[in-house]
Amino acid sequence: MILKGFNDLSAFLETPKNVVIVGHRNPDGDAIGASLALKHYLTKKGHHATVVMPNDYPDFLQWLPGSENTFRFDWQNSQSQKAIQKSEIIFLLDFNTLHRVGSDMQNTLEKYQNDFVMIDHHQQPDDVKFMYSDVNVCSTSQMIYQYIEMNNDLSLIDKDIATCLYTGIMTDTGSFRFRSTTSKTHRIIADLIDKGAQNDRIHNNVYDSNSYNRLLLLGQALSNLQILPEYKTAFITLTDEEKKRFDFQKGDTEGVVNYALSLKGIIFAAIFIEDKEQSIVKISFRSKGTFSVNKFSRNHYNGGGHDNAAGGRSESTMQETVDNFCSLLKDYKTELEVSYEI
């Protein structure tokens, strides 16, 4: 764990400040949940807090309390720029390096004259003045809970804060099933329920609000599933044409890679999603056991993340990307064989 400058940060925040809170590009449940929870908490402490996301996020997260007041940098640029310019400090949540916000917003943040606070659980974070980094914590939302706890302010957690934090922890742990989910995580979840988080409603809003087209897209993805049993690996592809056929919306592929990982005997799973607008193939990796998809993605796909969940990108065609992926597996066969007891 890295905890840097938080006594000075507490002193700085003793008087009301203009604060901006930023999550990563294509924000997920953890980024949104942590950011909105922190906004509600800082507001209760007397600060003026604004959440600025690099771009939009899925409908199944837009019900979260406070979401309606969040700025999107890509299409609410003037409001976002104004908030950043007025701010006296910026919190960076759920990402470890500025390029994760996208090039346009990165350029703005690199010109920022005041200080950053980074609260994140990904490996190899950039160096900023105030930092709370812990790769052993399951989610940034849990870290926000622990940050509130450090300030002896758990009594300030109300239903809205509890709902945001529960959502972030739930989504980043695969509904509490990943190895990073500890007994402490469950104790925090219990406290969030006690403070007003309605677990059944949250689960329904996130996981049981699919559109018809999203389910059809899932069917297409599963029909594209391929298995490489000699490497204990499975992967899914989705082309731009297939996405358009089923009226793809942001968030429609969230969690699809986990279907590949759910196969008996599979250790390593990937999904390759064509994005012709950016001329890339987006990649999500998942693994079981000790096989590090963070290292795999950093070594080969300009990405990273966690040991068992990471992302990357390829600037090659879909077929070239898949062919390259398959050719790499022979170098990892031993690691995959010993990664996990099936």
Strands, helices and their partners?
Layout: E1 2-4, H1 6-12, E2 18-22, H2 29-44, E3 48-53, E4 71-72, H3 77-86, E5 89-93, H4 103-110, E6 115-120, E7 130-133, H5 140-150, H6 159-172, H7 183-194, H8 199-207, H9 212-223, E8 226-228, E9 233-238, H10 240-245, H11 257-261, E10 268-275, E11 280-287, H12 293-300, E12 304-305, E13 309-314, H13 318-328, H14 333-338
Parallel strand pairs: 2-3, 2-5, 3-4, 5-6, 6-7, 9-10
Antiparallel strand pairs: 1-7, 8-9, 10-11, 11-13, 12-13
Helix pairs in contact: 2-5, 2-6, 5-6, 6-7, 6-8
Counted by DSSP, the helix tally is 14
Rough shape?
A: globular
What series of H and E elements makes up the topology? EHEHEEHEHEEHHHHHEEHHEEHEEHH
What's the arrangement of strands in the largest beta sheet?
1-7-6-5-2-3-4
**Biggest sheet: strands, sense, closure?**
7 strands, mixed
Oligomer: single chain
Structure description:
With 342 residues, the protein is α/β, with parallel strands linked by helices. It has 14 helices and 13 strands. Strands 1-7-6-5-2-3-4 form a seven-stranded mixed β-sheet, sandwiched between helices. Strands 8-9-10-11-13-12 form a six-stranded mixed β-sheet. The protein is globular, with a radius of gyration of 20 Å. The two termini are 31 Å apart. The model has no long low-confidence stretch (mean pLDDT 95).
